[in-house]
Design a protein that fits this description.
By secondary structure, the protein is α/β, with parallel strands linked by helices. Helix content is about 40%, strand content about 10%. It contains 13 helices and ten strands. The strands form three sheets. A five-stranded parallel β-sheet has the order 6-7-8-9-10. The chain has a three-stranded parallel β-sheet with strand order 3-4-5. Strands 1-2 form a two-stranded antiparallel ribbon. The chain is globular and about 50 Å long. The protein starts with a strand and ends in a 25-residue tail after the last helix.
């Protein structure tokens, strides 16, 4: 939990990993390139005091994860989001099984999500059901640009993807996290396009689609979709570190999200271990939209920050929040999004 100026914030880090990017797990040059690309994001968008060596970045110990997230990072609950990448890493990069082993040891700290790939067909549906039973899944993380054999991506609007979304509804998995953000070497940029979110969100109104990285660099496309689809949320991992390197750009991103979505559909995430939550949370709590931009975007109030930092994700995952830290209107926006009926 974070406290500043007598105000407390319940923190849910909605996007963390327990990955293995070591050379011994890299299957080929693409695995090496992938973790190096992650490291470039870490190095270029972090304060100098928060930059790790590449060797530190390859893999974090259980002790370090607990320290970075909970001992000094203010996080109350963290949600593991798997990224398998079995074409690039021998044992997978960040699997539900890896995450789940740590979550089982610390059930009061972690929530573990699953994953699926529609190209796995019937066998994948059976595996999803097994994962759901084994880990009591409440969410999945989807990576539409992941390579598989000769395929370099898929879409949420694909017929087999609909089969998997149907299965999620059947299994009670209601939170669908989708990576729709900057490209990562060697994945294809177009495979992260946000257009298929519109199709799936309309077809499955009972599911919640949390678009990780809020569609960057396609922020405008994402916002026009999200304002029409009340079950589409914005995760601000990757966007948030610009609070350090380009604060006016971050002000524009968060301002656009608040204008189109309102404060109840935006979720915080550090994207650990690309970044650590401590400095991101401290900077966000202290951040204010520049005065010359407030006529268009307004201000970031304490209540808005508290929702983004934890209350919105807590609602999605039924995480109990101390009553004194909740916000009375966290369950509904004060204004109806543009274009809604």
């Amino acid at each position: 939990m974070y406290e500043k100026d007598g105000r407390k914030y319940f923190i849910v880090d909605g996007h963390v990993h327990f990955w293995d990017g070591r050379p011994s797990n890299q299957a080929n040059r693409y695995g090496e390139g992938f973790i190096n690309c992650f490291y470039d994001y870490h190095r270029n968008l972090s304060p100098a005091s928060e930059v790790w060596t590449l060797e530190e970045f390859w893999r974090q110990s259980e002790e370090r994860i607990l320290h970075d997230l909970f001992e000094v990072g203010y996080v109350d609950r963290a949600i593991f989001q798997p990224t398998y990448l079995t074409e690039f890493f021998v044992d997978g990069f960040n699997t539900t099984e890896q995450d789940g082993a740590l979550a089982e040891k610390h059930p009061d700290r972690f929530i573990v999500n699953g994953s699926w790939d529609p190209r796995d067909g019937e066998l994948g549906l059976a595996r999803l059901e097994a994962l759901a039973r084994r880990w009591n899944l409440r969410g999945v993380k989807l990576y539409t640009a992941e390579w598989k054999g000769g395929s370099k991506g898929w879409k949420l609007s694909d017929p087999w993807a609909y089969r998997y979304l149907d299965k999620c509804q059947e299994l009670g998995i209601r939170n669908i996290h989708v990576h729709k953000g900057p490209t990562i070497y060697p994945l294809n940029r177009d495979a992260f396009d946000v257009a298929d979110v519109d199709d799936a969100a309309s077809a499955f109104p009972g599911l919640t689609f949390i678009v990780e990285h809020c569609g960057l660099p396609r922020l405008e496309d994402f916002c026009w979709i999200a304002t029409q689809e009340p079950n589409v949320y914005a995760g601000i991992a990757v966007a948030l570190p610009f609070i350090h390197t380009r604060p006016r750009y971050f002000a524009q991103v968060i301002g656009e999200l608040l204008y189109w979505l309102d404060e109840n559909r935006i979720t915080f995430a550090s994207d650990y271990a690309i970044w650590t939550p401590k400095w991101l949370i401290e900077r966000f709590v202290d951040f204010q939209i520049p005065e010359d931009m407030r006529g268009e975007y307004g201000e970031l109030t304490f209540e808005v920050k508290r929702k983004i930092l934890g209350l919105n994700a807590a609602r999605l995952y039924d995480i109990k929040v101390p009553p004194e830290l909740d916000v009375a209107d966290a369950h509904a926006g004060s204004d109806r999004p543009i274009g809604s009926a």
